[in-house]
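Marked as duplicate of an earlier ticket. Keeping the data here for the record.
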Amino acid sequence: MKHLNPGSIAAPVSTYSHAIEVPAGARTLHVSGQIGVDADGTLGADAKEQSRLVWDNILKILAEAKMDLSNVVKVNAYLTDTSDMAAYGAARNAVLGEHRPCSTLVFVSALAKPDWKVEVDIVAAAAD
């Protein structure tokens, strides 16, 4: 994967890349929005716990596809409360470390269920 952050535009304002080029023939995985529930369906108590569970679920899906975080090329995150940004960011950064996928973070008035505070979908690609 080739990360693109052209010097002709402003640098990313956070922990992401402006673009990632995926080579021809790469396997692509599109992951539906993941919410903060554990394997038995229990919802995390707050945004911090939900964020951790979201990323745990994403890691498990990647493993099932024989991929890992280095394969993530795009992250879309949806939060219902601006005050949850730090909790989400801490969980995201703890998992992604120095990896810089393309990213979008949006605050929405609600998710599909009222107790859901965080939802994240990703795209991953692997050049096999």
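See parent ticket for discussion. Helices lie at 47-64, 85-96.
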